[in-house]
Amino acid sequence: MENIVIKERLTALRQKLRQEGIDYYLIPTADFHNSEYVNAYFTVREHYCGFTGSNGSLVVWQDGAALWTDGRYFIQAEHELEGTTVELMRMQQEGVPTIEEFLKKEMRQGQTLGFDGRVVPASEGMCYEKALKDKEIRFAYDQDIAGGIWEDRPPLPAGPVKVLTEEVAGRSTAQKLKDVREKLAKEKAGSFLLSKLDDLMWLFNIRGCDVECNPVALSYAYITEKEAHLFIQDKALSEEVKADLAQKQIIVHPYEAVVDFLKAMPEGGTVLVDPRQVSYALYKAVGEKQQLVEASNPTELLKAVKNPVELANMEKIFLKDSVALTKFIYWVKTNIGKTEITEITAADHLEQLRRAIPEFLDLSFPTISAYGPNAAMMHYAPTAENHAVCKPEGMLLVDSGGQYLGGTTDVTRTIVLGPVTEEQKMHYTLVAGAMLQLTAARWLYGCTGRNLDILARQRLWNIGLDYQCGTGHGVGYILNVHEGPQNLRWKFVGGLAEVPFEEGMDITNEPGVYIQDSHGIRIENVMVAKNDVKNEYGQFMHFETLTWVPIDMEAIDEKYLTEEQRMLLYGYQKQVYDKVSPYLTEEEAQWLRRETRADSTILLENQKV
């Protein structure tokens, strides 16, 4: 079906590009801070192609347009791009060029590539410079051309900022600045330009609301050996917050003043910048007079290692969140077929259960509630116009989480609503076994996610299956649900940080199976890396689980489990019952006892996962 609205928008954009002398124009999914999720003001790419996923870059030229996105969104993108004339480029698939390769092949000598330099990371911009150098391509990055002609564009957000007390944060801003400055000294940098929003919130112990579900405020920081400068919108700051920042000796500037500030710096200084995070425009501005020290933001790794206060609060919050999700599963299973449950009403009911938790602040991301074939789309989002009614058959996948004063949660369960096929049982059992096998990992310090990812994928690879995404990501503390630099993935991807697991790092564990037009299965827990025994071989490590939600035994066929996985499954289920049942009604607790097989005779005494 023809998408006339998108075609008209692309026509208007091409007309403007001709007027500006721009041959190819790039629109990424980003704000001025390279955030994964963005405020509506920054959804320019979606405006011009209709694709709503959180990752994708659109390239527009006079004769066509193409969208690049990753495997999480292939199915979704196919549907959303239908009728737009925008071609789907499936990233990292055989025969599919990268954006750099595409531009290098298609652009002619001396042509112009345009983009808003504030929303393109410096590392990406430099890749284009290198790829297109021989063709003497001109870069036009000082205008927001696509956004500038967007009629009725939402306003730039400026939500109220709140202070996080040291009792909740665990460390003061002064302590964190001291740690950052020590890192700068090691890098031989005199100052540090920071634009990553969750790092900024962590450093200054503040939280905002400028990005849906992510408690961040649009801001920048410039840290020197003695001063800390914060660039933030004045209307976002109450007198209380201003007083707190002043007490911390933070020098506050208008948000829009950052470029002039950087250009006014005296020559000869050394500034640490992370090219993956700072924008191309800021990179160029600060590099006019300063010597750049290119390195990862020191705040990223410091933030990723949760302190004892954060870990203690997270343990409490994850249990409360697990109770809410367990109550939700009980509600779904006892009401399916008796009253109408849709993907949307299911998500709404779960949200209400979370809102009943006193520490609840917001969802940590829009709930993915996907029934039947819809679950094959990893980041499917039901809408009022397009959603499924759940039936007493098949499975409902629910990926959800909450923001709480004490932690950020992320959990997925695939719930059996009625009869399932033998193939679905096999896939479900393999996914459950994969999740538990990774949970039980033991390793020597120095391992990264690439060392451990095979523990989750092995049984799936053995039968020719895979999932087109990583196995795990870090989770913020009252911050973004996706956090680095730690991750679990099998494939080396240039430009992504790869660090060893440190004690106190959290990580999701979420293998899955996605069969287009049939079903999708994902089971996800959050774990924390902990030190284990230390001996002549080095420091051994293991994971401790934070998520305690039952695995649906109706879809388990034990012939697809190893004996170790079988024992891990029953051990985990018993712990779920022991931890969660005290917070349930008597009827819910009786159901959970049956659901978890808590009375099973195969359990080993003191079995732990």
Write the layout of secondary structure elements.
Blueprint: H1 4-20, E1 24-27, H2 44-49, E2 57-61, E3 64-69, H3 74-81, E4 87-90, H4 99-106, E5 112-114, H5 122-132, E6 138-140, H6 145-148, E7 162-163, H7 166-169, H8 173-186, E8 191-194, H9 197-204, E9 206-207, E10 219-224, E11 228-232, H10 239-247, E12 250-253, H11 258-263, E13 270-273, H12 280-286, E14 291-294, H13 298-304, H14 308-335, E15 341-342, H15 343-355, E16 360-363, E17 368-371, E18 389-390, E19 395-400, E20 402-404, E21 407-408, E22 411-416, H16 422-439, E23 442-444, H17 449-452, H18 454-462, E24 472-474, E25 483-488, E26 506-509, E27 512-515, E28 519-522, E29 525-535, E30 538-545, H19 563-580, H20 586-596
Parallel strand pairs: 1-5, 3-4, 5-6, 8-13, 11-12, 13-14
Antiparallel strand pairs: 1-2, 2-3, 7-9, 8-10, 10-11, 15-18, 16-20, 17-19, 19-22, 20-21, 23-30, 24-25, 26-29, 27-28, 29-30
Helix pairs in contact: 4-5, 5-12, 14-15, 16-18, 16-19, 19-20
